[in-house]
Design brief:
Keywords: Membrane, Transmembrane, Transmembrane helix. This protein is an all-alpha fold. Helices cover 73% and strands 0% of the residues. It is built from seven helices and no strands. Helix 1 runs antiparallel to helix 2. It is globular and about 70 Å long. The structure holds zinc ion. Zinc ion binds next to helix 2 and helix 6.
């Protein structure tokens, strides 16, 4: 799923735990963080973003090449697979549980946010799914739908996800307004 949407749904799921929600949101963004860091890295240090290619293939061509360079970059490839691997997650989870206990705290909150990202991506990536037990197994489990690919219901997913997000925002706003009204009438 889209990185920001991961953050949004994690906020919805964890918002009642005010002490933990921040860490859970950070955890839910972590698997995709590498794209943003490397995007700027390629932007500044790559040689595709110079005036000559812009003249030759235009801005959209340059951006397209950049997206390709990004996902083909070995650092992105390794960290993308590691960040979306249940095996890597479990390794960190065991360490955290050992030192901090399994109860919900900022450490486990971070890891549950991260786990939520892995599970959602497992269900919403088809052609671009990553090996879930990387680096121990390269077996790829493809999700039933893709969050972007129209060949795998990407259009329906985007529409539904958009409606659900709008509904969730509306729901929270209505609850807030009602809570304020109650406070005032007391
Ligand atoms: Zn992801």
């Amino acid at each position: 799923m889209n990185t920001l949407h991961h953050g949004f749904w994690t906020y919805i799921a964890m918002r009642k735990r005010k002490d933990v929600v921040k860490y859970a949101i950070i955890g839910s963004l972590v698997p995709d963080l590498v794209y943003y860091i490397m995007f700027f890295y390629i932007l500044f240090f790559g040689d595709i973003f110079t005036s000559q290619p812009i003249e030759e293939i235009g801005w959209s061509g340059v951006l397209h090449d950049m997206a390709h360079a990004l996902f083909a970059h070995p650092v992105v490839e390794v960290l993308r697979q590691a960040g979306h691997s249940f095996a890597v997650w479990l390794f960190f989870y065991i360490i955290v549980v050992f030192f901090k206990g399994w109860k919900l705290n900022k450490w486990t909150g971070f890891l549950y946010g991260w786990l939520g990202h892995i599970i959602i991506d497992l269900l919403t990536h088809v052609e671009d799914a990553v090996p879930i037990f990387y680096p121990f197994s390269m077996k790829v489990i493809r999700g039933p739908i893709s969050y972007w690919d129209d060949d795998h219901y990407g259009d329906i997913f985007s529409l539904l996800n958009g409606i659900l997000m709008a509904t969730a925002i509306l729901w929270i706003l209505i609850k807030k307004v009602n809570a304020n009204r109650k406070k005032r009438s007391l």
